[in-house]
Amino acid sequence: MTGYYLTILEGAALTVAVSLASLLVAILLGLAGASAKLSGRKPLVAAATLYTTLVRGVPELVLMLLIFYGGTIGLNALMEALGSEQTIDIEPFAAGVITIGFIYGAYMTETFRGAILAIPKGQMEAAWAFGMGPLRTFWRITLPQMIRYALPGFTNNWLVLIKATALVSLIGLQDMTYRAKQASAATREPFTFLLFAAGLFLLYTWISLWALRQVEARYSLGTKRGQL
């Protein structure tokens, strides 16, 4: 029995890796999407709006299967069209990270967009008046305040993203959920091992909440809690 618990713990490490890699993709897409929506350029606004609308309207599982199976077929068709006999297989880890990051990038887009809009325009105008360029204004003025305003929505998206990582078990990635199901099938004790996996998910969530509270405390200095 101990061996099954150890293998689930190994799967938990993979779950953490998938979630963190997906979060990075989601943050990058979220920043790009928010910038596009606030750019005022119609093509960029339309593209970002289409992205967020489509992602929120299509089930996560459908997108994951589409990227995992459809992506492989599409890449191989492209290689064949280019005259290459080489075949390409998308790894389950990459498919999971891309899919989850792509999905939650849409939610991060709205979170970051709202946070940027919450920053008083006068502060950025003052930065420009002092001769700060766009990049310096972003790092010194926009980003610190954006983090503060975005944290509540960011935290919610992150916690939901953690739960969404369980979907990668459906495409063969041996994460915590996959190994818990394998242990359950082998021992015919599903309650024991699935409960253990659920406990690990809760522990990961608790650690995440604690870490994000530290970030909130850091970026909320001099600000009343009711103002966040």
Quick rundown:
The chain is mainly alpha-helical and 228 residues long.
Pick out the low-confidence regions: none
Tally of separate helices: 8
In total, how many domains does the architecture comprise?
1
Strand content: under 5%
Please identify, by name, the CATH architecture.
Orthogonal Bundle
Percent range for helical residues? over 70%
Rounded to an integer, what's the Rg over CA atoms?
Answer: 21 Å
Helix and strand element order: HHHHHHHH
Chain-averaged pLDDT: 87
Protein name: ABC transporter permease
Membrane topology: Multi-pass membrane protein
GO cellular component, one term: ATP-binding cassette (ABC) transporter complex
Keywords: Cell inner membrane, Cell membrane, Membrane, Transmembrane, Transmembrane helix, Transport
Describe it for me?
The chain has about 230 residues and is mainly alpha-helical. The chain has one domain: MetI-like fold (Orthogonal Bundle). The protein is about 80% helix and about 0% strand. The longest helix is centred in the N-terminal third of the chain and has 37 residues, at about 1-40. The mean pLDDT is about 85. It holds the Pfam family BPD_transp_1.
